[in-house]
Amino acid sequence: MRNLTYMVAMSLDGFIAAPDGTYNDFLFEGDHMTALFEEYPDALPTVARQALGLDEKPNRTFDTVVMGRATYEVPGGLPSPYAHLRQYVVSSTLTGAPEDVTVVADALSAVRALKAESGLDIWLCGGGKLAAALVPEIDRLILKVHPIVLGRGVPLFDGEFPAQRFAKVESRVFATGVTFATYSRS
Fold this sequence. Notes:
This protein is α/β, with parallel strands linked by helices. The protein has a single domain (4-185), classed as 3-Layer(aba) Sandwich (Dihydrofolate Reductase, subunit A). It is 19% helix and 31% strand. It has helices spanning 31-39, 46-51, 69-72, 107-116, 128-133; strands at 4-11, 15-17, 62-68, 86-90, 101-104, 121-126, 140-146, 154-155, 166-173, 179-185. The strands form two sheets. Strands 5-4-3-6-1-7-10-9 form an eight-stranded mixed beta sheet. It has a two-stranded antiparallel ribbon with strand order 2-8. The longest helix is centred in the middle third of the chain and has 10 residues, at 107-116. It is globular and about 40 Å long.
């Protein structure tokens, strides 16, 4: 069975994006980015993989990405942002997605079916409402905590769900002040 990993950047006060869905205040340079490129190249948009010469390398961690509509339609977004992965967008209203983007309305059923398949892990890349709906299926959290306080925005989990316990696996602090904290479901 495959794992669902919620890997996302967040602020110190628990927001994954500004109120308008953008994430311009997060750090995109420094040693934490080098670690991200080396350890999780599958989680880079296809255009970034091509620019870094990684587009010919096989996926190592993820072969599927699941995202909410707001994450998919982030301002300046691409119609097929992760063409090197199987792409799923959770929405009941999205139309006109490219052929390589599958739109599903029922996130839980879709993720449960994906987890039952063989293959690499599944990356939940955002957003907060979708993460809250998928809490029962999240096996691992990789939180890239940036040294910034946004004050408001899109929360890491945006919705109600029963408490879930995770165990700390690893934590690394980079010179940029960004911390990668990894947790597994207890």
